[in-house]
Amino acid sequence: MSPKYRLILTSFVLSTLLMIAKFIAYYQTYSSAILTDALESIINVVASGFAFYAVYLASLPKDLNHPYGHGKIEFFSAGLEGVLITLASIFIIFHAVQGFVTPQPLNDLNIGLIIISSGAIINYYLGYVIEKEGEKQNSPTLIADGKHLKLDAQSGLILILAIGLIILTKATWIDGLASIAFAVFMGISGIKIIRKSIGGLMDETNDATLHTIVDLIKNNQKNEWIDVHNLRIQEYGSDLHIDCHLTLPNYWVLEKVHDTVHEFEEVLSKEFDASVEFFIHADPCLPECCSYCKIEDCPIRWYPQTKVIEWNKVNLSLNQKHFIEKI
């Protein structure tokens, strides 16, 4: 079993056990704050279950119906988790307001405090491990699940503080106030997760990935790479698809063009652990390219080199050669 499957399965099992423990704590205490945490645990269980299925789908090979693979299901999985978090936050606020209108007596808060504290410690550690593995494998599903568990642990601190204050002060209104604060914190985090997953589904450029690729091109630049433009990056879960136009000398034979394109691909792929697919379009150089071409012994040069173009994420991404003024 791969590390992805092990972590998601562990998350699912622990989330289920913690959910049961938190509901037991609620029925022992009738605390709105503890019910809030228990309801949030339902989301952990549902999200972990769907995340396991998403990781399975994302690992399937490409086929005729999915020529780019199945990796985008991971963005959908992360988005679903964000939606569930947001909906739960709305329900929690509604329940807390009801608690202000018709308050219920609180019982055995010490038991609830022990269960919530234990759950916070377990969730934070597990969330930290899952998020780090997700960043390592560039997996939106693992990152979202890890962030969710860490969020659950962080919000648990609010509840621990609230329950502690209730025990010390006997002010039961703190219970509802803590639930609302927890719900607002959850809702903001859920919206952020939704926003990021929508960006992934719409092929929004990942600035960190683009910056890495631009640095690779600049730091390994060859004189024969006359021009690079129309650089585009698509993420399919943990897999990358990179395409661009690479301008090469027009007098080269096809075999040399092929070898240079392959070398260019190797330069771009060496920093990524994920599977990287390329589509490099080779353009022949034009006389207008001479002004920034660095090939010293070019047999067909029309004009001397007069400028050096500093490649960056803007001009590498434009769908036009560098001798054309930016429109």
From TrEMBL:
Belongs to the cation diffusion facilitator (CDF) transporter (TC 2.A.4) family. It is a multi-pass membrane protein. Residues 209-285 form the Cation efflux protein cytoplasmic domain. Residues 9-202 form the Cation efflux protein transmembrane domain. Keywords: Membrane, Transmembrane, Transmembrane helix, Transport. Its main location: membrane. This is Cation diffusion facilitator family transporter. NCBIfam families: CDF (TIGR01297). Pfam families: Cation_efflux, ZT_dimer. The chain crosses the membrane at residues 41-61, 73-97, 109-130, 151-168, 174-194. It is found in: Membrane.
